[in-house]
Design brief:
CATH topology of the largest domain: TIM Barrel
Protein name: Probable nitronate monooxygenase
Organism: Enterococcus termitis
CATH architecture of the largest domain: Alpha-Beta Barrel
Number of helices: 11
Distance between the termini: 5 Å
GO molecular function: dioxygenase activity; nitronate monooxygenase activity
Keywords: Coiled coil, Dioxygenase, Flavoprotein, FMN, Oxidoreductase
Radius of gyration: 19 Å
Structural class: alpha/beta
Largest sheet: 8 strands, parallel
Strand order of the largest sheet: 3-11-10-8-7-6-5-4
Pfam families: NMO (PF03060)
Order of helices and strands: EEEHEHEHEHEHEEHEHEHEEHHH
Helix content: 25-40%
């Protein structure tokens, strides 16, 4: 059976696959554009998106504002004007400026998590940009959407459910991950029911997208059967010709075995899933000195005096230095990737019934 298009208000993606935002420097214009060209929705991560700009070390915020437009325009060109959006962490310092800048350049969608994006509806007011919060529980979805309803009389254009098998930062406690994985399908059904009530309140369809551990067509079919309208995939696209990650980063994925996929403690106070290497072992027993603060997170999410290492610094090192001495975020199925491929080949595989 062929996959149905993903319809988000007046936006239509021929294939119901959204490419997840991966920062720093993993999902930029080349990957996002390639995914969009194949009929999906390409996503740019705003996390230090301007790290390759000359003024980045002097003024990271200005560099990021500049790069948002550059990367978006390039992605649109590659995509033949297909759908391109941004992933913006709610914990980002100057979150409002990032959202407004993405709207200004013409973002089709904005997906926002890593905290509750309470003010997101206000920040996109008057634009055509569609918005989606990332949620991990029916309770979280209900709290956020009720807040948006009461404060702005607005709701989500679509919702991304991120499960416990995702890569990077997770919206679950480390000690309950196994239980969360076992119970995720039941939680998805509850979230779907919660979202349906807001559809009735606002008289609109709110597509639900599942993210976290989605790897092949059987996974896609499984989540569609649970009531989702599409999926978000990130890890699967890393080891492609088009992915913006450096070759050494991709090689780390290819060489990873199942036992190398590990849970680390992030300085932002959340567990994260990454590939085991020298850095992941190092942070278990020592604090890594911060060379330079680039003001990436709001102060309530980062205590510079006590954090074990700087999240921006180590993610930058993963794409600018030896990734074995840096944090390599990856989803639970990263070990299943054993050779480089192309975005086109992945879409061909996933869309074949």
């Amino acid at each position: 059976m062929s996959l149905k298009p993903l319809v988000i208000d007046n936006l239509v993606a021929k294939v119901p696959i959204i490419q997840g935002g991966m920062g720093i420097g993993i999902s930029l214009a080349n990957l996002a554009g390639a995914v969009s060209r194949e009929g999906g929705i390409g996503i740019l991560s705003t996390a230090q998106i301007g790290y390759q700009e000359e003024l980045f070390e002097k003024s990271p915020l200005r560099a990021n504002m500049l790069a948002i437009e550059k990367q978006f325009k390039k992605a649109k060109e590659i995509a033949n004007n297909g759908l391109i959006g941004f992933n913006i962490m709610a914990a980002t310092f100057h979150y409002d400026r990032y959202v407004k800048r993405c709207v200004e350049v013409g973002a089709d969608v904005i997906i926002s998590g890593a905290g509750l994006p309470i003010t997101l509806p206000e920040l996109v007011e008057g634009s055509q940009t569609k918005i989606a919060p990332i949620v991990s529980s029916s309770k979280g979805a209900k709290v956020l959407l009720n807040t948006w309803k009461k404060r702005y009389n607005k709701t989500a254009d679509f919702v991304v459910i991120e499960g416990p098998e995702a890569g990077g930062h997770l919206g679950f406690k480390a000690e309950t991950l196994s239980k969360n994985i076992e119970q995720m399908d039941d939680e998805i059904v509850k979230i779907v029911e919660t979202i349906r009530s807001f559809e009735e309140d606002f008289g609109k369809d709110i597509p639900i997208i599942f993210a976290g551990g989605v790897f092949d067509r059987s996974d896609i079919d499984h989540y569609l059967a649970l009531g989702c309208s599409g999926v978000q995939m990130a890890t699967r696209f890393v080891v492609t010709e088009e992915c913006d990650a450096p070759e050494a980063f991709k090689t780390a994925y290819i060489n990873a075995e199942q036992e190398d996929i590990t849970i680390i403690k992030s300085p932002v106070g959340m567990p994260g899933r990454a590939i085991k290497n020298r850095f992941s072992e190092r942070i278990k027993h020592e604090q890594v000195p911060i060379e330079k603060c680039r003001s990436c997170l709001s102060y309530k999410h980062c205590d510079r005096e006590t954090i074990p290492y700087c999240i921006t610094e180590t993610l930058l090192n993963a794409v600018t230095k030896d990734p074995n001495d840096a944090l390599i975020f990856a989803g639970s199925n990263a070990y299943r990737i054993k050779e480089k491929t192309t975005v086109k080949a992945i879409f061909a595989e996933l869309t074949t019934a």
